Amino acid sequence: MSAHAQKKKNPIWDWLTTVDHKKIGILYLATGAFFFLLGGLEAILIRIQLLYPENNFVGAQTFNELLTMHGTTMIFLAAMPLVFGFFNAIVPLQIGARDVAFPFVNSLGYWLFTAGGIMLNLGWFLGGSPDAGWTGYAPLSTTSPGNGVDFYVLGLQISGIGTLIGGINFLVTIVNMRAPGMTFMRMPLFTWTTFITSGLILFAFPALTIGLALLMLDRLFGTQFFAAEAGGNPIIYEHLFWIFGHPEVYILILPAFGIFSEVIPVMAKKRLFGYSAMVFATALIGFLGFMVWVHHMFTVGLGPIANSIFAVATMLIAVPTGVKIFNWLFTMWGGKVVFTTANLWAVGFIPSFVLGGMTGVMLSVPPADYQYHDSYFVVAHFHYVIVGGVVFGLFAGMYYWWPKIFGRMLNETLGKIHFWLFFIGFHLTFFPQHFLGLMGMPRRVYTYLSGQELETANFVSSIGAFLMGVATIVMLWNIIQTSVAGKKASNDPWDARTLEWAISSPPPEYNFAQTPLVRGLDAFWLEKRAGNKTMTPAEPLDDIHMPDSSILPFMMAVGLFIAALSAIYSSWAIAIGGLVLTFAMMFLRSVIDYHGYHIHKEDLPSEGVDGK
Amino acid sequence: MGSHQNDSVSKHDQSHLDIHHKIAHQKELKQHIVSFAMMIFLTMLSFIAVASEAISTRFAILFILVLAGIQAAFQLYIWMHLSHKGHQYPTWGIFFGIGVAATCVAAGAAMIW
Fold this sequence. Notes:
The structure holds 2 protein chains of 2 kinds.
Chain A: H1 11-17, H2 21-49, H3 60-94, H4 103-121, H5 140-143, H6 148-176, H7 189-220, H8 234-268, H9 275-288, H10 304-332, H11 341-363, H12 366-372, H13 376-406, H14 412-438, H15 455-485, H16 523-529, E1 544-546, H17 552-568, H18 572-591, E2 597-599
Antiparallel strand pairs in A: 1-2
Helix pairs in contact in A: 2-3, 2-4, 2-15, 3-4, 3-6, 3-8, 3-13, 4-6, 4-17, 6-7, 6-17, 7-8, 7-9, 8-10, 8-11, 8-13, 9-10, 10-11, 11-13, 11-14, 13-14, 14-15, 17-18
Chain B: H1 11-51, H2 57-79, H3 88-110
Helix pairs in contact in B: 1-2
């Protein structure tokens, strides 16, 4: 870029120490993609096992481990970091900021998440993975032999801390670092959903932390919080898990909603229909998300009154969600819709997600839920909302923002092949599972008997899963091919509306040479309509203060990883050593002054606000 | 607030502002004194509740918990200025957090068998 250019750093050292939100975003996306492939591989193995009745491809124990790790990996290690990857890569750009509020904490969040993710997967190499389901219900989890569930408990605990501080970081960033003129009601919808999601993370994750801490005490230190025979109560774990768990599914879906709300208006060349209703619906979904957790526990036996109250609360959520669906439809209505790959995912999302929403309302009726509970109907339902909603959203975001993040266009033809293969594979896999569930096939069981008319649907379901696998290979090929020989992306390849498209692709490390002035919703679109090529600056060109990179976050995560791993094997001396390492790094962070450095205005390109 | 040129407040307007500030300040001073007295009074009440033979232990515990809630509200609103402008985020955060925490406690205490 220019003269300030730090002496060429070792690239590995650079990535380990970076506090730049764009690089951390790429780290999150890469790590999330890796775990997504891993979770997908586990899913394929599950479906091979279920290809035929009484199949013996993997045994019952391995099946339990695969199933547990598929769920845990997909939720905590794939969907969460991919969502955080987009938060990091896009939100500071959308609000016209130079970085997040706490760059150091941002890096710490990423490394804690990664440490936890590795910890969770260690079981594959150390004699047995977690096998108590992604929910880790006590007493199954407290009595599970071996160290598998210990990896689950401590891995999730560490990555949970990372997620929590990441959420706090984005709350503060969005409250404090918006560009001049960007009022709350001028924020892009993706920023809004990030804001609400971060709030949900802040309030939901502590419940998981408590639940896992109690589970850890039960497993590693011999307490009996969840042991009924000793006066404990396993229902408390279920409550804690779902008080976290239900907001968690909104933590995943709301950012996807945000991505669709960015993609659909851009691809329809119309402003988002009902912006304020969209904001209100997002907030309402987030709020109601805390009041419905008992619908995961209808069959626990809490009584008809509790079940009825939570049934009604659950049905209520269909209202703001419906508002959103109609607003997307009305945005497309009468628009000049271009079916780019990103938009295909967005359009494909609507019918898929509505199907999942429909079965959700069916499940919210307690008497009916007694029939559906723990059957493949539930499996079909949550895959329809999570794959049809979250994964489609992440793919839409990937095709939409790839040029901005990496500076190269993805191949649209390969993208469309990816979409159609995945879309067909997805429905082929999960649509028959509704009927498998209604016919009585229980979830989480490693095989089924022949002659119960379960064969055909299971076979079709597995074929669909393989198709999704093929689609993923096409996506990987697309990424590899375009990163080698892809077309360079312009600043604004989609003729888009929000601030991130006003700067170069990929953005310079300081994002905006001059903080932009925001004159309304869809700030960049307004400037383009007014005949301006770039944003109007809100400040004179000046030296730009940048934060120092640091190895301390990485070392803190390493310390916690060592502590947790040694605690599992009761090597207390080493465990204390690991904690000492973490606290020593925290001490260093407190006593060393980080002054950052300046990029001098003489070294900036003269173009001004677009940072070319 | 009146016409002001070159971003400076005229002498006249300035004296108005001063009076407003003074009134607000005196009002706040009064609030502080009242709440201080109230808090001492509430503390005395809770000591009496524990010391007195006439009040059952069960009732005393509940009573003290209620008083503690009131004290916390005094602390937050009067002494930590939560009622002032620009405190919407902390207020939202505190109350939503209290709500979720209370939900957990209620679920763990009442919604089990």
